[in-house]
Amino acid sequence: MKRTLKRSLKVSVLMGALVLILPYLAPPKLVLRFLPKDVYEAGKDHPAPSKKKQLLGHLLTLLFCGYFLRIMKENADEIKQERLGFGEAFKRLMVFLYVEKAFDIIVLDQFLCMTSGYYKRSYPETKDCAGWHNRGWNNKQQAARLLLYPIVCGVQAYLLTNKAEKNDAVYDK
């Protein structure tokens, strides 16, 4: 479980670093689409970075996605290797996703977006937008993800533990 928690924190920190540098490497329409609608509308015409910077931004995003998939595979391999039951596998997968989601909501959404003014400095044309004062701007999306995670983790835990049980049954014969 400690390794799972550590992996989730690593993913969270790397995601945070990526979110911090993307305003300098990605087109505003891409960065601002995750923020309140009036902020997006006010900042979408902000000058885009050079094509080289955008390419670097896409490359870093792809590297992060690859790292995230590798970490998910490590979690799955560990569950299979330790021959965990469904309940323990489910718990580990949930811890991984919920730690990452808590970081997303608390650090990225509430602190970075709403409290620190980081994006206001990157996109000054958005400084007077009302959306910066609406802390519940993405509650529906976050709630949907939080409700979906147990289903995703349950299916993944079932597949990981059911395959291991079938393999055990074959070797026992």
How is this fold's topology laid out?
Blueprint: H1 2-25, H2 28-32, H3 37-43, H4 51-81, H5 86-115, H6 118-122, H7 139-172
Helix pairs in contact: 1-4, 1-5, 5-7
Tell me the β content: under 5%
Helix content estimate: over 70%
Q: What letter string, H or E per element, gives the SSE order?
A: HHHHHHH
Helix run count:
7
Give the oligomeric state.
single chain
Helical/strand content category = mainly alpha
- Describe the sheet with the most strands: none
Q: State the total count of DSSP E strands.
A: 0
Shape: elongated
Compute the number of structural domains: 1
Rg over CA atoms: 20 Å
Structural description of this entry:
- This protein has 173 residues and is mostly helical.
- It has one domain (2-172).
- The protein has seven helices and no strands.
- It has helices at 2-25, 28-32, 37-43, 51-81, 86-115, 118-122, 139-172.
- The longest helix has 34 residues, at 139-172.
